[in-house]
Amino acid sequence: MQITEAIILAGGLGTRLKSAVPDVPKCMAPVNGRPFIAYVIELLHQQGIKEFIFSLGYRSDAFTDFLGGMLPAENYQLVVEKEPLGTGGAIQLACRNVNGDHMITLNGDSIFKVDLASQCDFHVANGADCTLSLKYLEHFDRYGAVTLNPDRSIAAFEEKKYYERGLINGGVYIINKNSFLAEGLPEKFSFETDYLQSLYAKRKMYGFEQKGYFIDIGIPEDYQRAQKELTD
């Protein structure tokens, strides 16, 4: 099964990037003369995504002209938070605009070159509520680790600390829309804390390791690295 709709969370303030990129949403930070999110959109296009739902908050006006020049109007929607809803609230609000039963959800301030088709097939074959893309890293302390059971269901979300090696949550999710909405979660909540970490033991949540390139521009060092590594 191919999923053709994606929600991109693009409302982040980019507090830690203020010194390098003042006054624009984090995912609009310029990388080699283009907003970072342009690279995200192009990667999704290559993976068969045709319909985009942008979840916006801070400086949503910054997206209007850019998106109008990059995507046909019929291929994207803007969902703007009137007040911050947290990552979970933002997904919950945006997914009401999704037509299919399953959706791709990802952060607009990171790139993970995943194989969406394989992850989708795994998600559907397991009847999953949510399937996370996982990235293997060594010597890291910026992320928590994810451990899996033999069937690749989530065994635990480990706290953020120094790890010699491990799998991290790469931030690309395939979500069963109907089961997610049926949770009856509040209007404002954290997707990571209040959905994933609170419910993984009770729901069908799986991890799918992906080998592709990964970068998160949330800190100035990695934002500068993106300038060197991302090109047309």
List keywords for this structure.
232 residues, alpha/beta, seven-stranded mixed β-sheet, two-stranded antiparallel ribbon, 7 helices
Q: In which order are the strands of the major sheet placed?
A: 5-4-1-6-11-8-12
Mean pLDDT: 92
Number of strands: 13
Measure the end-to-end span.
30 Å
Total helical segments: 7
Structure write-up:
- With 232 residues, the protein is of the alpha/beta class.
- The chain is 28% helix and 30% strand.
- The chain is built from 7 helices and 13 strands.
- It has helices at residues 36-46, 61-70, 86-95, 116-125, 177-181, 191-199, 220-229, and strands at 5-9, 30-31, 34-35, 51-56, 76-80, 102-107, 110-112, 130-140, 146-148, 154-157, 163-176, 205-209, 214-216.
- The strands form 4 sheets. The protein has a 7-stranded mixed sheet with strand order 5-4-1-6-11-8-12, with helices on both faces.
- Helix 3 (86-95) crosses helix 6.
- The longest helix has 11 residues, at 36-46.
- The model has no long low-confidence stretch (mean pLDDT 92).
Briefly summarize what is shown.
The protein is of the alpha/beta class.
Q: Secondary-structure blueprint of this entry?
A:
Elements (H helix, E strand, L loop, with lengths): L4 E5 L20 E2 L2 E2 H11 L4 E6 L4 H10 L5 E5 L5 H10 L6 E6 L2 E3 L3 H10 L4 E11 L5 E3 L5 E4 L5 E14 H5 L9 H9 L5 E5 L4 E3 L3 H10 L3
Parallel strand pairs: 1-4, 1-6, 4-5, 8-12
Antiparallel strand pairs: 2-3, 6-11, 7-13, 8-11, 9-10
